[in-house]
Structures are given as C-alpha cells and as structure tokens.
Amino acid sequence: MKCAPRSRSLWMGLFSMENVEAAVPKRRSQADKVGKHKYELALLHRVENRLERIEKQQRIIFHGLQGYFKFDRPLVEEVGCQSELDLAVVSLIFESGSGGILAKDIHAKLQQFGLERHRILRIVRRVNLNVEKAFGRPIIEKRGKKWAFTSFGVTVWGKSKDDAEDTFTDSWEKGEVRGEES
After folding, report:
1. Which end of the chain has fewer CB atoms within 10 angstroms, the N or the C?
2. Element (H, E) at 162
3. Is the distance from CB of 134 to CB of 79 less than 8 angstroms?
4. Could you tell me the residue range of the domain that residue 110 belongs to?
C-alpha cells in the first residue's frame, strides 16, 4: 500500500500544470514570421478592401433610394467646397443661370483671389468629384465653352435670380400670375 502513494505522486509530478505548459511549444505570430512591416501592410490592405466594399454597398443603396433624398445647400457646400475660392467659383457659376459662364469671365470677376484661368477647370473638377463621391451626381457641367449647373445642382441650390426672373416674366406673359388662363 505504500507503493500507491509513491506512484501517484510520481504520476502527479509528471503531468502537473507546470510541466504541461513547458511541454507545449510557443508558436510564433504571423507578424514574427513575415515581419512586422509586411504584416501591418497586409492588414492595412485588408481593412482598405473591406472599407471599399462597404462604400460600394452604400453607393448601391444610395442610388436605389435617390428619389427619396432631399439635399440642402449647406450640406453640398460642405462636401464639395474645400475653400472660399471653391465656393466663390461655384457661386459665380450658379449666379450665371442656365446659360452658363465662361472661364475668362470667372477669372475676371475673381481678381481678388489671384486666380489663374486654367485653375478654374481644376476647381470645378475637384468640386464635382467630391460631390459625385458623396451624392452620385455632379453639380456643374460644361455646356459648349461655358460652365453651368446641372439639374441636380439647380434643385440643391435653387433657382438663380436670372432664371427666377425669366420664369416670372414667362408666367406673367402667359397670364398665370394675373389669374388669367391661357
């Protein structure tokens, strides 16, 4: 009977928790295997790909629900215009009405900014890119040699003074404003 406790203590000594932990080999992490820099780059690419998929799904949902959204001017200004110069160019294009405005006229009216004529194209493209990324539609388009607002831009910004006066004049001539029927 004295042998059993001895073998039991021997048995317990062989498989104690200390020995089990020491017997399991320690595994290297993926960062140790490929290098910390490569591991972080791979992780960054995975996160960027996942983000791109989420943004694509968001654009699909947004495009499907596009008719239900109403955007206001301050939101589009905040998204599209990064500086006062961007806002000034967009405002001049808006004020020109549906006929549009030439780049040289924008350059002439914005002398206080020291704007070069070829920079107007870059500003318009940047604003359109930002707005198109966020809302799916640009706000400015080229009509011939002039820059003008798209229908989306007009709905967001509202009608310009020239367009509103033209609409009022047309409706006055038709007799709609005076209560007459045509």
Report:
1. N
2. helix 161-174
3. yes
4. 75-170
